[in-house]
Every structure is written in structure tokens, then in C-alpha cells.
Design goal:
The protein is of the alpha+beta class. It contains 15 helices and 29 strands. The chain starts with a helix and ends in a 5-residue tail after the last helix.
Length: 533
């Protein structure tokens, strides 16, 4: 190609340059217009949402776009405050709004975060943040004390009171019925993990704990009751001049025992009226003439049961008897049969001689043996003194245990010692016989021969003192020798005097052995008993 041609080409190219430059200018103008338009639009957008949250923004899954912050906060609070927590207990469900469970949404912080989306950084960053529209996570505050208070309001619905142990008594045995634990709300266990589960809108299972029954002493009460019921118990009674025994079975004692609630304790108790009712039945079994001293017997039996004694001893006297005289009866024989001195029989029948005298077929009144037992007997007194006339011995018992056996001398036939049930009425260290002018050491008064207070009294005592160290009837023990009293050796009488309580029953039985001794007064007695037989 020539030089001319090359120049021509360059020129041609220079002539096309203005067209290209214009296009660029146009494009730049258009771009500037677009940018201006976008800028104007952005400005208008920002002006519109200057106080509003940008569109499409959500807090959690709750949309708050285009809302003022105050409205968004109120809306968020209203939404979450209507959320309900669910508590399940057996077949029941309880519902409580979140505020009542101490859950508070931090709405203001969440709303501010939602408002800030698309407002900070470069335009690209702002646009990118807005276009991403990531939901704002909301946080919550939790006050467990509020949840506790709400939950405690359901305590009564959960609580089942425990059943304490009880005692039943039947057929002579006491049985404990075990207590049943109760149930109560376990607030701490229920609230554990509650916050997290509520946020996940999961139901909460109500937790409980057992309430142990109160230790009310039922086991100890049953032990004591069964000791009272099942320990052997035998009544030994002096009735109709002989010993009679009666076993009280556990079944008969069922009504004697019970349990009383004293505070929160079960206390075993003995029913005095029930014991007396049983003894009334025993008295009826003895016969229509029995007149048991029920008050004393009841106290003795109750004390024996309480102290674990298996044997109770007492007298069962006869009551007043209407008797028809039979052939061969005498005042003495009736007195021996019923334990009543002749003088008492005469006192009880003052008109007997006017009614024809002591004759067969004649009705008379025999006083109750209780007239010979004027002193009350302590419930603790299980003593008895037995005088065996046949063998001329005195036996002393404490309950079922014999504590003394001693040789004695009873009255001679003319001054015989009476048969019957008597008791220690008085104790005198040295009693003086004013008629005989002798001293009777260790005197235990047991009965009046005649009218009480106006007659001679027979008793138990040591060999009488005559003075000068002499003892009347020394060497005669084991043989009838006295004027009706029961005479003992010096040491034995001293022991018995200290041991015997007032009221102690004295049982005299048997037959006075025959003897050649017979006298009317002390002088004659001294003369005839100078030497031992």
C-alpha cells in the first residue's frame, strides 16, 4: 500500500470519532440519570422509613416490618404475653400465661435490632442486609420466683394427705394397719428445666414427692396392747371357803383395750368400765349370793394388766343371804359356813326369838361377808394371810408367792377362833389386854367377836408377855391354846407385823384340833399351861 492510501485511511477513521463519543456521552447521561433516580428513590425510601422498620423484617417468626418501634414493641409484647405454658399432672392440665411464669421477652432490644437492619454500613452493605432479611432472634428474661408462686397455687390440687398408721383390735389381738404415704407438689423438681421447655412450647410434667405418714406410735401401741391382751391372766378368788380360779381369755379382754389419740400419738389405754363389766360377769358365774367388791377388784385387775402380772388375787365375799334354817343348824355352824360371828347373826335377826326362836323352817338373814371387811384394800395389795386351823399353821402370800409359813396356836374349843374372811384392821406395837392384864406384842386386829366397837377383838400376835420376861403359852405353838387369837412365835410375829398392810385379807379355815385344855380365865390358863404338853 502507498503512503497516500495510508493517510486516507486514518482520516476516514478520524471522521467517525464524533459518533462514538456521542454514544458514550449518552450512556453516561443515562447512567447518571439512573443513579440520580435511584438516589432520589433511596432518599425517598429512607425518608419514608425514617421511623419505621424496613419491610419484610421479622422478630423471630413474627413480622414487624413497616411498624414504628413503639408499635412493634407493643405488638411483640402482646404476642409473647399471650403465650401459654402447659403443665400436665395425671389427667389434668394447667395453663398459665408466660408473664405468670416469670418469662419476659426483651422486646425493646429485639425491635431496635430489627430497626437497625439496612441502616448502617455502605449502601451495598445496607442493601445486602435488608435483602437478607434475617429474622431477629429475641431473648427472654426468666424470674423463677414468679413461676414458683404460680405453681404453688396448684399445690392443693396435687396434695393427697398421708394416712397415718392405725390400730384395729379384734378376737384378742391388736393389729397395726400400716400408714399410706401421701403426695405433694415438688416445686423445685418441676421447675428444673422449665424455662427451656417453655421456650420450645413443650408441656411440663408436674413432679411430686411422697409425704411420709407421721410416726404416731402405732407399732409401739400394738406391742403394748398385745402384751395386755395375750399375757395369761388368772383370777384367784376366795369364794365359799375355798379358792376358785378363773382365766380371763384374750377374747374376753378385747373390749378392755383401746387406743387414744393424744396429740399426734396413739396411746394404748385400758377401759376401766369394760374390766368391771367382765368382773360383773365373773361375779354372776360364782352364783347369785356373790357380792364381789367390784371397785377394788377392778382396780387390782387393771393394775395387774398394766404391770404385766399374770395372777390377781382377791376376796369374793357373799352378799346378804336369806336362809331357811335346816335340821342340825346352829348359830355356830352357820357362822362357820358363812364366816359371820354369832353376834352378827343375832344383830341381823333381832326378832328371831319373837318369831318362834331358832327353829327348822324359820327364815333368817345372814349378813354379807363385807361387814367383816370394813377396810378398803389398795389395788397394789396382793397380800393374804391364811390360818389353817386343822394344821395350826399360818401362811402368808404375796400374790402367788408364799413368803411365810409359821406354826401357830389358835383358840381352844371353848374360845374357838372363828372361821371366815377377815382382814387386818389395826396394827398396834404392844396391845394391852385390859381384862387379863397382859401385853400382846405385834398386834394385828382381825375381827370383833361381838358388836363392832363394843366387844372383844381377836387378832394375830406374838406370845403374850406376862412380865419379868415370861411368855404365856411358850412351848405350846402348834396346839390350840388361846382365847381365840392366833398366837405366833416372837420372830415370826415381828416379821408379819412389819409386812402386813392394813386391809390385808385374813382367811381362816379348817377345824380346830381336839385338846384337853379348857379354862375360863387367864389365871386358870396360866395354871394349866405351866409346862409344855
Amino acid at each position: 500500500m502507498s503512503t497516500v492510501d495510508a493517510v486516507s485511511v486514518r482520516k476516514g477513521a478520524g471522521r467517525r470519532l464524533p459518533l462514538r463519543a456521542g454514544a458514550v456521552l449518552i450512556l453516561l447521561f443515562i447512567l447518571a440519570a439512573i443513579i440520580a433516580t435511584v438516589g432520589v428513590a433511596a432518599g425517598l425510601f429512607e425518608d419514608r422509613y425514617a421511623t419505621l422498620i424496613y419491610p419484610g423484617i421479622a422478630i423471630g417468626n413474627f413480622p414487624v416490618g413497616e411498624m414504628p418501634r413503639a408499635e412493634a414493641e407493643a405488638t411483640v409484647l402482646e404476642h409473647y404475653n399471650r403465650m401459654l405454658g402447659v403443665f400436665e399432672y395425671q389427667s389434668s392440665k394447667w395453663f398459665a400465661a408466660w408473664p405468670l411464669l416469670g418469662i419476659s421477652p426483651n422486646a425493646r432490644d429485639a425491635v431496635q435490632q430489627a430497626f437497625n437492619i439496612g441502616r448502617y454500613g455502605s449502601p451495598d452493605q445496607r442493601i445486602a442486609a435488608w435483602r437478607a432479611r434475617e429474622p431477629v432472634a429475641i431473648s427472654f428474661s426468666y424470674d423463677a420466683s414468679i413461676a414458683r408462686k404460680t405453681l404453688e397455687g396448684h399445690r392443693a390440687e396435687v396434695r393427697v394427705a398421708p394416712q397415718d398408721a392405725s390400730v384395729t383390735i379384734a378376737n384378742g389381738a391388736a393389729v397395726m394397719i400400716a400408714g399410706i404415704p401421701g403426695v405433694e407438689l415438688d416445686t423445685d423438681a418441676t421447675l428444673q428445666g422449665t424455662f427451656a421447655r417453655l421456650l420450645k412450647e413443650q408441656p411440663i410434667t408436674v413432679q411430686t414427692r411422697p409425704i411420709a405418714p407421721v410416726d404416731n406410735g402405732a407399732e409401739a401401741a400394738v406391742t403394748q396392747l398385745n402384751a395386755w391382751l395375750q399375757r395369761p391372766l388368772t383370777l384367784t378368788m376366795w369364794w365359799a371357803n375355798s379358792m376358785v380360779t378363773r382365766t380371763i381369755t384374750p377374747a374376753e379382754r378385747t373390749g378392755w383395750v383401746s387406743v387414744l389419740a393424744v396429740g399426734d400419738r396413739l396411746t394404748p389405754s385400758l377401759n376401766t368400765k369394760a374390766i368391771r363389766a367382765t368382773l360383773e360377769q365373773v361375779n354372776a358365774e360364782l352364783g347369785p349370793d356373790a357380792a364381789m367388791r367390784l371397785d377394788e377388784a377392778t382396780s387390782m385387775v387393771q393394775r395387774a394388766v398394766e404391770h404385766g402380772d399374770s395372777l390377781v388375787w382377791f376376796v369374793a365375799p357373799h352378799g346378804e343371804i336369806r336362809y331357811t334354817i335346816k335340821r342340825g343348824d346352829t348359830y355356830e355352824s352357820l357362822g362357820d359356813a358363812y364366816g359371820i360371828p354369832t353376834a352378827r347373826l343375832l344383830d341381823a335377826n333381832p326378832n328371831i326369838w319373837e318369831d318362834g326362836g331358832f327353829a327348822v323352817g324359820q327364815p333368817i338373814t345372814i349378813p354379807t361377808q363385807n361387814t367383816m371387811l370394813p377396810v378398803s384394800i389398795s389395788p397394789t395389795n396382793q397380800q393374804r394371810i391364811e390360818v389353817d386351823l386343822t394344821h395350826q399353821r399360818l401362811l402368808a402370800f404375796d400374790g402367788g408367792q408364799r413368803v411365810l409359813s409359821a406354826s401357830i396356836s389358835s383358840g381352844i374349843p371353848k374360845w374357838r377362833t372363828l372361821i371366815g374372811v377377815f382382814q387386818v384392821q389395826e396394827k398396834v406395837d404392844d396391845a394391852l389386854n385390859k381384862l387379863a392384864h397382859i401385853t400382846m406384842p405385834d398386834w394385828l386386829s382381825i375381827y370383833d367377836v361381838g358388836e363392832p366397837g363394843n366387844s372383844l377383838t381377836n387378832g394375830i400376835h406374838a406370845l403374850p408377855e406376862l412380865g419379868g420376861g415370861r411368855r404365856l403359852w411358850e412351848g405350846y405353838l402348834g396346839h390350840p391354846v388361846s382365847f381365840g387369837c392366833v398366837v405366833m412365835g416372837i420372830d415370826e410375829a415381828a416379821w408379819l407385823y412389819k409386812w402386813a398392810q392394813l386391809g390385808t385379807p385374813v382367811l381362816i379355815y379348817g377345824v380346830t384340833p381336839p385338846t384337853d385344855l379348857n379354862y375360863d380365865d387367864l389365871i386358870e390358863a396360866q395354871q394349866k399351861t405351866q409346862k409344855a404338853p
